[in-house]
Amino acid sequence: MLRLHEVALIYPNGVRAVLPTSITVPKGQFLVLLGPSGAGKSTLLRCLNGLVRPTQGDITIEGWGSIFQSGRTLREHRMRTGMIFQQHHLIDRLTALQNVMIGRIGAHGTFRSLFPLPRSDRIVALQSLERVGLIERALDRADKLSGGQQQRIGIARAMAQRPQIVLADEPVASLDPATGEKVLADLHRICREDGITAIVSLHQVDLARRFADRVIGLVNGRIVFDGSVSQLGQTTLDGIYLTSLSQTPKRQQWN
Q1: 96, 134 in Cβ contact below 8 A?
Q2: Which of 239, 205, 207, 211 is nearest to 225 (CA)?
Q3: Can you list the domains of the chain with their CATH numbers?
């Protein structure tokens, strides 16, 4: 179980990226973050992975405590947290298999990672590719694959970590609707099969309605909706997307 306790982030210029937020995410839940650009979705995900430390509050994992209690705890949290990005972040000159095996590096010490990874890691990577339907492209260079295939390689790389949590930052924003739906369906299926907690930021409301167990709507760093897909009606969506248009940048500053 993942918990945020009054987490807030204020940038040095005074802009409130995330207002004090407390949420609990049960194990295995597929949680979707909705909101306009600049709502705080990406910042919240970066806090959850410890890439950015909140200026207020704490993030805890059941059985571990705070992810920030020590450098070692933070490293272990990141090892157990797979990240999926909008722009794939693959190494073009490497094969699909080599890119996926990068997800195994964190399982080894710094010295060990200087040498070829063991055969067991290669097997994990191949299994991850098979789960996203790309085992036949394992030896193809990443830059020879389509955008949808590259994103599925990104999913396979995250799954090669054997994560307990997956954080995905607009993973289908750069894809056409049909490909985006297929990619998100793959991610949803694997998380269901493995009992992985997923927190995914999206702009596509229709995909949120299809795949989410729970939706959180963010506006200017503040939660304005937290509920099930069945509660995500037009009035709620107007509150998420139209409210931000009526608010000026001045209201994002500490007074």
Answers
A1: yes
A2: 239
A3: 1-80+165-171+197-255 (3.40.50.300), 84-162 (no CATH)
Task: Yes or no: say if 90 and 150 are a contact pair by the CB < 8 Å rule.
Answer: yes
Q: Collect all residues with Cβ–Cβ distance below 8 Å to 84 and sequence separation of at least 6.
A: 151, 154, 155, 158, 166, 167, 168, 169, 171, 187
CA distance 183 to 238: 27
Distance between CA atoms of residues 250 and 96, nearest Å: 46
CA-nearest of 175, 226, 225 to 204 is 175
At 25-43, the pLDDT tens digits run 999 999 999 999 889 999 9
User: What's the mean pLDDT in 48-70?
Assistant: 93
Q: Could you read off the pLDDT of 6-20 as tens digits, one per residue?
A: 999 998 888 889 999
pLDDT more than 70, % of the chain: 92
Look up residue 141 and give its DSSP letter. Answer: B
DSSP-derived secondary structure letter, 253? B
The structure's pTM equals: 0.89
Give the H or E element holding residue 152. Answer: helix 147-160
| DSSP run (H or E) holding 118 | none
How far is 25 from 3, CA to CA, in rounded Å? 6
Amino acid at 73: T
